[in-house]
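Before relying on records like the one below, remember that each one covers exactly one chain. Contacts with other chains, cofactors or solvent are not represented anywhere in the record.
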Amino acid sequence: VVLISEFVKNKFDVLNLAQENLRQRFLIKEEIGVPFSITNLYNILTKTQGVADVAKLRVYNKNGHPYSTTPLDIDSLMSGDGKNINVPGNCILELKYLTQDIRMSIK
């Protein structure tokens, strides 16, 4: 994720707040087969105080230990408008490690 900050004294405070807002979202576990909303992530980030815009947001699948070994091609599951990832009926998309799996920068 690459964020564009508003004019603020400390961009890193904004970055930390955005990361915490996303972590709070992922404390809620999804149900099997529920589409994963990219739009929801944008909304969380743009509503974060000090964030002017989201320049880049990418969701990807980590495979192998300690993650799932089930191959999943995120790009092929993306909806035509890019707003959702259509999760197969036997899968759940989750953020496994809340403090490690969100990579963000701010400009």
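The two ends are 11 Å apart (CA to CA).
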